[in-house]
Each structure stands twice: as structure tokens, then as C-alpha cells.
């Protein structure tokens, strides 16, 4: 019954390292999203994609990049990790046009600690 | 700016009823969502409201008043497994979701 899979549940990286967070969905969804979740704050959108090779910046794209080479896979890249990127990262996907009642299906999250 | 407000934490008793409020100020409105998130797990969809009124789904109901910028999630016959965070999110005029910080609900026996 797995739908959205994030490759790593827990990662510990050092400042300056390059970090890849992988997300795969098996529901043939067009839209994929990367959020970060921090205590006391709502989910914040980093990047999203509504088609293969398409990407759009969200509210907090600085320090991040993404890649969507295949429909089912959406990768989040931290080119040079910093301590303020320590967070829980949630991947999500949805079907249909963004103007509709798209229900997001989330992955279990990747908790990243940057030392 | 855009803002979603919900209480940080609430406590209720098993078997009782609890109402979690959400008020919003957004640039445009294209629907309101409630998600449930158990500790350490993925958020899961509970309800969607786009028109005023009450939507009932088993023990859970969600209400919307667009004129007041207000919604609530009503949970009846509370069970211990309802202990979780409840996230309110509004889709704005650009069809982007604006999220509240979530309400942590603690159920006591």
C-alpha cells in the first residue's frame, strides 16, 4: 500500500556537504511538492513540479534545488548544507490541476540534521 | 500578509467531543483542508470545504464560514488514537496552500 516513499528517514550531514533527498510516488500523480516542517510553523513550500522537467519555486527556495527527470521521482538537493536547514522534509504528490480540490498524499518524511 | 491561526494545543477526554478552530486571512480563497498528523508520521487528509456549511464524515465534521474566515474541525466520541496534530490549510488565489502551525490534540483516559 506504499504510495509516496522518501528514501531516507534520518540523515546526519556536515555543514557544506551536498545532500540529496529522494521521493518516489507510485500513483501516477502529475504534481509533486517538497515542504519543510519546523516546530511552531506551518508547512513551508520549497519547490513544486506539475510535470516532468518542470519546476516552480515555492515560498523558501533559497539554498535548495530540485530535479524531476521522471514523473514518479522528485529529488530535493541541498548544494551546500547549512545548520539552518536542519528540519523535517516532507514530500507530497497530488493528482489533477492545482486549481482543484487536490488532496496531497505525503511521504513519511526525512529528518535532516546538519552539524 | 497571509495568516492561518489555530490553537497550539488542546486536551480532551476519551469519549468526549472537541472542536478545533482555524481562522484565516489569505489573498483569495479556493478551499480549506484539514489534515491529521500522528507524531513521526505523514499528514493524512481528513476533509475539504469550499462552500459554507458543515461536511460530516463519520466521527469527524468540518465547518466553513467564508465570510468570517473561519473553520472548525469537530471530533466526536474521541478515541485515544485521535491523539495527533491537526493541520488547517487554505488554498489561496494562486492555488497555493497556506498552512497553519497545527493543533496538538492530547486525549486523556
Overall morphology of chain B? globular
Structural class of chain B: mainly beta
Q: What is the overall number of helices of chain A?
A: 0
Assembly context of the chains: heterodimer
Short account of what is shown:
The complex is a heterodimer of chains A (115) and B (109). By secondary structure, chain A is mainly beta.
Provide key terms for this protein.
heterodimer; A: 115 residues; mainly beta; 7-stranded mixed beta sheet; 3-stranded antiparallel beta sheet; B: 109 residues; 6-stranded mixed beta sheet; 5-stranded antiparallel beta sheet; globular
What does this structure look like?
The complex is a heterodimer of chains A (115) and B (109). Chain A is mainly beta. Chain A has strands at 4-6, 10-13, 19-21, 23-25, 31-37, 44-49, 56-57, 65-70, 73-78, 87-94, 105-106, 110-114. In chain A, strands 2, 5, 6, 7, 10, 11 and 12 form a seven-stranded mixed sheet that branches. Chain B is mainly β and 109 residues long. Chain B contains no helices and eleven strands. The model of chain B has no long low-confidence stretch (mean pLDDT 96). At the A-B interface, strand 11 of A face strand 5 and strand 10 of B.
